[in-house]
Amino acid sequence: MPLTCRGRVRGQEPSRGDVDDALGKFSLTLIDSLDTLVVLNKTKEFEDAVRKVLRDVNLDNDVVVSVFETNIRVLGGLLGGHSLAIMLKEKGEYMQWYNDELLQMAKQLGYKLLPAFNTTSGLPYPRINLKFGIRKPEARTGTETDTCTACAGTLILEFAALSRFTGATIFEEYARKALDFLWEKRQRSSNLVGVTINIHTGDWVRKDSGVGAGIDSYYEYLLKAYVLLGDDSFLERFNTHYDAIMRYISQPPLLLDVHIHKPMLNARTWMDALLAFFPGLQVLKGDIRPAIETHEMLYQVIKKHNFLPEAFTTDFRVHWAQHPLRPEFAESTYFLYKATGDPYYLEVGKTLIENLNKYARVPCGFAAMKDVRTGSHEDRMDSFFLAEMFKYLYLLFADKEDIIFDIEDYIFTTEAHLLPLWLSTTNQSMSKKNTTSEYTELDDSNFDWTCPNTQILFPNDPLYAQSIREPLKNVVDKSCPRGIIRVREESFRSGAKPPLRARDFMATNPEHLEILKKMGVSLIHLKDGRVQLVQHAIQAASSIDAEDGLRFMQEMIELSSQQQKEQQLPPRAVQIVSHPFFGRVVLTAGPAQFGLDLSKHKETRGFVASSKPYNGCSELTNPEAVMGKIALIQRGQCMFAEKARNIQNAGAIGGIVIDDNEGSSSDTAPLFQMAGDGKDTDDIKIPMLFLFSKEGSIILDAIREYEEVEVLLSDKAKDRDPEMENEEQPSSENDSQNQSAEQMTSISQEVDLIDQESLEESSLNSHPESLSPADIDNAASVSPSEQNSNPAENHETTSLDGECTDLDNQLQEQSETEEDSSPNVSWGKKVQPIDSILADWNEDIEAFEMMEKDEL
Ligand code: DMJ
Predict the structure, then answer these.
(1) Cα 721 to Cα 196: distance, rounded to the nearest angstrom
(2) Residue of higher predicted confidence among 102 and 730
(3) What's the CA gap between 22 and 10, in Å, rounded?
(4) Distance of CA 376 to CAs 207, 359, 371, Å?
(5) Backbone phi and psi for residue 503, each to the nearest 5 degrees, phi listed first
(6) Which of 17, 68, 204, 656 has its CA 20 to 30 A from that of 141?
(7) Is 642 annotated in the active site?
(8) What is the dihedral of CA 747, 571, 22, 281, to 10 degrees?
């Protein structure tokens, strides 16, 4: 935990949910960083670290851990450490005492994971208790029915390496069985796999499919298993999937999820950060052009926000704002540099390093970004930061002679652990050769089985990569998210009258429902009381109605997001700017619905002082201490507005309310917004921010240690550098914000989930019977691109030359391709049987509901 300078011990910190499943009280970061030390030529430190692991690590803890994470980080870490330990020993200088101890630990861990495979399918349970396994009552796990595809399909490298290093074949057998089962279950017409699967029945639970979260390393391991094990069947499987990915998911430069049964139908309008590994995999496959394109698009998103947000939309807006220092983009940059030799990728790497140092470096390491828009931190530095990010960035700039061994003799696991390629010829009892019969014949000259080679790929053309990047250079900045408004205005000008405006729509008006039906829009009442609108252009009465339907849906999205924005204030930042922090620590703060609005005014900077009484619920007894300063007040016992008035009267220039719930933290709780007291709060002129107890105690600890602590309250952290301490202290600018509310409001960060309260609120608006736009789950169901019947043809939605594409053309294109792709269906004359429409429909609803529940 780089902000509080402690290790994160499972059970000693408030649970963060599934992310904690990687922690097994087994010194995760130490093990995950072992081989990084050797790559960085820190051989002595490696030797010490191995000794520490052997001395301290206990694998027999009563903790439920993720099988996937334990495999890639811990088993992979031990095997990577072992691989380099034996390499060093052979060189004769270091590790002379080493006697395969890391391998023995790896084997012990391997046996601990095996009970997870005790299912009829051979797919592993997602979690296991390190001490008690699965079945025993003490295990507290084993009731799960689903796992993600990547979770079940990312074992073969570590398990095969373990088998081949030790001669115990059972590990490779189990990992192969799981992969065989996934392959059998692929959707046969699209050759795609879903995100989650039932480990008992083998049914797909989430039928959306992409190359990011939930699936990513399944594909990676098929190709790398071929490289490491030399088994043709893995390459054939990979190529079959790759062909499907390029056909349906790849919409250069985008990679967009689709449905496995209806791969022409996009499943969402945003991309997750995990897919940034894919260009690297494409390099390994030898398909450089799309790798360069996607990488360039991702780089432009990064330049906009300094880091890649956890998810971003197809028009490059932030969808999920956090960034846990993921290494995937650095990984792809490394591979692209290796493939092209283009110094551009060194510049990219330099930017990544500069941003890390400037925005993420904190006193005890590098802190994840809680919100790339505000620059605020989260108290976490995941082990993959040292295992992968450091390794790939170092290797990007390293010359051959900087590394004490030949990196080309190894393959990187998904966690960037190094496994030696000589394993392919050791203990290879499991290899299947020449089993091509069950694979689709792929008519594609791209699938020649050669590894990429710079000499062959770019003979005499150092500008090859640049020529591919050039047309994409404005793809992010010039994307046109609001094109629909222009189109709508144009169509009004030309006299076309929209049959129904989103703002007029009433769910109880039968006439409106009739119009919806005509436009192919269905109304779905969800169990939780919300209503979803889904449009299937194909179910519209005509192509004109389908177009109207699309406009109606997009109007709804606009209205919905407008309303959500009005209800939710964005997070704010408290940045500690005095010595020794100098702006390096940025805390996520909740906004207030009253007082100075920091998004409209210059930030407020000042020294902090605790108010007396600390709860700020009465006139302060220490006005001299808070005068001209930012007052710290404890939450509780009176309204936030009352506290604000009391500190303002004492002369404070701002206030920070610190949560009185001990242990609360922005790591685990949704953003908190302070509401007014239901009265007029115009008299409150100073800015007020809220910190959870953990973030608050970082400031309180700083006061204890350094006495004088200066902070900056703002909507976005200021660029930090040591100069900060010399800057003049600006005077606070006061203003009021005319907002009030009855009670404190906790803001959900999931923008597409509307809670019961907001439903109740919306039923009070001027159309009591109308459906509030905010009730519509636009992320899941009203995406315009869902109507795209052929993603491969619709990449013009993002204009490559910087011009916005006319939506009418897209609609035309969509309608045409919709017709093309379904010969049984024509406009106005549906011959698709109703049962099949209903079945399709149910399938979609199911998929949308699942996506909504379990996005990552
Ligand atoms: C790493 O642990 C691995 O790369 C994994 O495959 C998915 N991504 C995380 C880091 O983002």
Answers:
(1) 45
(2) 102
(3) 10
(4) 35, 9, 6
(5) -70, -20
(6) 204
(7) no
(8) 110
Atom of ligand 1 nearest to the CA of 217: 6
- Residue length, the chain? 856
Evaluate whether 40 touches 394 at the Cβ level (below 8 Å): yes
Beta-bridge mates of residue 312: 271, 318
Pocket test for ligand 1, best of 215, 326, 390 (most atoms within 8 A of CB): 326
In whole angstroms, give the CA distance from residue 674 to residue 687: 12
The full DSSP string for 42-90 is: -HHHHHHHHHHHHHH--S--S-EEEHHHIIIIIIHHHHHHHHHHHHHHH
Say whether 69 is catalytic.
yes
| Selected catalytic residue, list 47, 158, 172, 216 | 216
8-state DSSP, 16: -
Question: For the chain, how long is the longest CA-to-CA vector?
Answer: 85
Q: Kindly state the tokens that stand for 76.
A: 């992979």
Ligand 1 touching residue 414 (CB < 6 A) = yes
CB-CB contact of 563 with 364 (8 Å): no
Nearest alpha carbon to residue 556 among 600, 595, 514, 521 = 521
Q: What is the CA radius of gyration of the chain?
A: 28
- Cβ distance 642 to 594 under 8 Å? no
Q: How far apart are CA 129 and CA 138, in angstroms?
A: 9
Question: For residue range 125-175, what is the model confidence (pLDDT) as tens digits?
Answer: 999 999 999 988 899 998 999 999 999 999 999 999 999 999 999 999 999
Q: Which residues contact 354 (CB under 8 A, 6 or more apart)?
A: none
Which residue would you say has higher pLDDT here, 299 or 751? 299
Q: Let me know: does 754 contact 530? Beta carbons within 8 Å.
A: yes
pLDDT in tens, 753-781: 223 323 222 222 222 223 333 232 222 23
Contact, 821 vs 791, CB < 8 A? no
Closest by CA position to 384, among listed 37, 69, 32: 32
How many Cα atoms occupy the beta-carbon half-sphere of 789 within 13 Å? 18
How far apart, in whole angstroms, are the C-alpha atoms of residue 701 and residue 478? 45
Instruction: Quote the tokens at residue 609.
Output: 């002082």
Pair 315, 480: CB distance under 8 Å: yes
Q: What is the pLDDT of residues 396-450, one digit of tens each?
A: 999 999 999 999 999 999 999 999 999 988 877 766 554 545 666 665 555 554 5
| 0.90 surpassed by pTM | no
Residues 6+ apart with CB under 8 A from 353: 393
